C-alpha cells in the first residue's frame, strides 16, 4: 500500500484536528449516531488515544465502542478524481460510515486501511468512525476472556460478594496500556481514474553498481515511465516496463548511520508517484547477520509508541527526539515492540539510517494458560496471517527494515510440537510475502529453552531474558552464572542470536551506594553483568535492552505508574545506565565487532 503523497497529479487533505466524540457500550452504539451530528459531543484530538485526553475512569478504562464524527466538504474539483479515505491505524477494530452508510470495516489496530468514497459523497458529508477497544482470544494483541472485575464496598462479606455486579473490562495479556482510538493520521487523497496502485523495489549490489528490480502495479491504461534519481537530483537510470531491472552505476549504499536514499519517480498516464528506497542487502550467513555483506551488530532497544496525553497516538516531534537520543547513545537499531510502528517513524528511520526489526502485534500468545485446550483456545490464526501480509506489504520498500518478527514471547514450551505447527507456517508465509526475502524471527520468553522447537527454526534466534530481575532478582552473581550456562546451549546450534529484551525496573532519582533493586546503580550494574556474558559469545549479533523509555501499563501491584525499565524516563530524561550505554556503544562499531 502506497503512503499518501501530494504531487502534480494527486491532492492530499489531512483530517487531523478536533473531532466530535461519544463513548458507547461494549454491546454496540446507536445506529442514529452514524447519520446525524451528536447533540452534546465530547471533543477529542485526532490522531491520539482518547484515554488520557479527558479525566475520569470512564475514559481511561473504557471498555467497548467509542464513536468519532467529523463533517466533510469535498471541493467540487476533487470529486472528478478518484477520492480515497485512508486511516493510518485505528485500535483495535473500526467500522467506518459516510452519511449513515457503512463503507468499510477493519480488524487490527496498527496498520493502515483505505476505501474509495466517490459513490457515497454528497454536498455535505458526515464521517463517522466507530472504534472497538476490546481485546480477547481472537485479537492481536491477546486479551484474557477469563471473566470480569468486581466492585463494591471496601470490606464486603461473602454474601455481598456473591451479589456484586460484574463490570466487564479489558484484561490484556500484555504489559503495556491498551490505548485506543484513531492513533495515526486520517487523510483524503485523490488519484486519476487510471492510477499507480503499488510499487515494489528489490535492491541488490553487483560490484560497485546498484541493481534495482522494479514492479509497478497499475489500474487502467496509460504509458509507464520509471526514472531513478540520486540525492543530488541527478537521473541515474530509467525504464518503461511495469516489471524490469535497472542498474545504477557506482551506487551509494544505504547503511546504518549513513543513509542514502534514491527516488523512483513513476508516471502512468496522468498519474505520478515518487517512492524512496535504498540500495542495501541483508542476509544471514552462519552465525553472522550481514548488511551489505558486512557483519552487523545490533545496538539498541525494545521500544513503545507511548507518551503522556498522546498515549499511542502519532507524535512526530517525539519521534525526532527519540532518534536524536538514539544517536546520542550511539545506538543503531530498535524493535517495533510489540506492533508495527507508524509509517512516519519508518520513513524517518530510512532517512536517519536507523535499523528496524519490524514486529507484528502477536503478543500475549501464552498457550500455557490451559494445557487441555492449548491452541484451540485462540482464534488468531487467520488474523495473524493477515497481519503478516499487511505489515510486509506496507513496509516492504523500507531500507531500514532488515528483519521481520512474527510474535513476541509466545509459550513455545508447554506444547512444543503444537507451537511449531502454528508458527512454522507463519515463518514460511513471511518469507513468501517479502520480495526482498529478509530474515524472519520470533522472540521467545524466559522458558525451558531446551524444549523449544520454534526458536531454532527461525533465521535468527531472538530471546528475552531477565536473569537478575524476574529470575534471581537482586543476585547478579548467580544471574550471570545462569546466563552463561544458557548461552552454552545456544552456541551449539550454530545460528546467529541476539538478546531483544533484558532490563530492571528503575525509579529515577533512587540511589544507593550498594546497588539494590529499583535503584539507578542496580540498573547499571545489572547491565554490566549481562553484557559481560554477551561479549564472550561470538554468535551473539546484538543487544537490545528493555526499554528505551518508561511507558504506561495497566494498573497493578507490579507497576508503579507504569513500567520503569527505561533508560530514559517517560519524558526522556536519562537515567544513570544511559550514560553507561553511551560509553559502551561508542566503543562498539556497527560492523565487524565480532569477527
TrEMBL record:
EC numbers for this chain: 3.2.1.31
PROSITE patterns membership: GLYCOSYL_HYDROL_F2_1, GLYCOSYL_HYDROL_F2_2
Biological-process GO terms, alphabetical: carbohydrate metabolic process; glucuronoside catabolic process
Species assigned in the record: Mediterraneibacter gnavus (Ruminococcus gnavus)
NCBIfam families from the UniProt entry: PRK10150.1 (NF007538)
UniProt domain Glycoside hydrolase family 2 immunoglobulin-like beta-sandwich: residue ranges: 195-280
UniProt keyword list: Glycosidase, Hydrolase
InterPro entries membership: Beta-gal/glucu_dom_sf, Galactose-bd-like_sf, GH, Glyco_hydro_2, Glyco_hydro_2_AS, Glyco_hydro_2_cat, Glyco_hydro_2_CS, Glyco_hydro_2_N
Lineage of source species: Bacteria, Bacillati, Bacillota, Clostridia, Lachnospirales
GO molecular function: beta-glucuronidase activity; carbohydrate binding
All residue ranges annotated as the Glycosyl hydrolases family 2 sugar binding domain in the record: 14-192
Group of enzyme by EC: hydrolase
Pfam families noted in UniProt: Glyco_hydro_2, Glyco_hydro_2_C, Glyco_hydro_2_N
Domain Glycoside hydrolase family 2 catalytic stretches: 282-588
Gene3D superfamilies with a match to the protein in the record: Galactose-binding domain-like, Glycosidases, Immunoglobulins
Family: Belongs to the glycosyl hydrolase 2 family.
Protein name (record): Beta-glucuronidase
